[in-house]
Amino acid sequence: MYVEDTARAVEAARRAGGVGEAYQVGADEEKENVAVLGALCDLLDRLKPRAGGKSHRELMETVTDRPGHDRRYATDASKFRTGLSWQPKVSFLEGLEKTVRWYLENPAWCESVRAKGYAGQRLGLGRPGS
């Protein structure tokens, strides 16, 4: 779900949600992880093509899942959407494109993250010995 829709959902819960109520928020656009990655590759092919016209999909590789890894993420947001009359404004593909464009247009921010020690490594695997 696009970040601005998430912020609007939090604001809707703050303004109109019941005190102590729990809500699930979602855009009802369930996708498998591999489909999200494919959409990202297709978008990069259009916005930042690779040398020689090669597809970014060629860079995809299958890795061993980490323990507890989810293949998809799904929520039942009907209580939130009905009770608070909330709907997302941005579709999955539109939000993905807005997000990718932001990263492509803000390389200095990306470099600042790398400068703090992130080197592109796969996260969520835990530390050796933990």
Task: Give the proportion of residues in helices.
Answer: 40-55%
The coarse overall form would be globular
Contiguous low-pLDDT stretches (5 residues minimum) are none
Distance between the termini: 32 Å
Largest beta-sheet details: none
Give me the secondary-structure topology.
Elements lengths: L2 H14 L16 H15 L30 H6 L8 H14 L1 H9 L15
Helix pairs in contact: 2-4
Structural features, described:
With 130 residues, the protein is mainly α. It has one domain (3-52, 73-114). It has five helices and no strands. The chain has helices at 3-16, 33-47, 78-83, 92-105, 107-115. Helix 2 (33-47) crosses helix 4 (92-105). The protein starts with a helix and ends in a 15-residue tail after the last helix. The mean pLDDT is 88.
Descriptive terms for the model:
mainly alpha
Gist of the model:
The protein has 130 residues and is mainly alpha-helical.
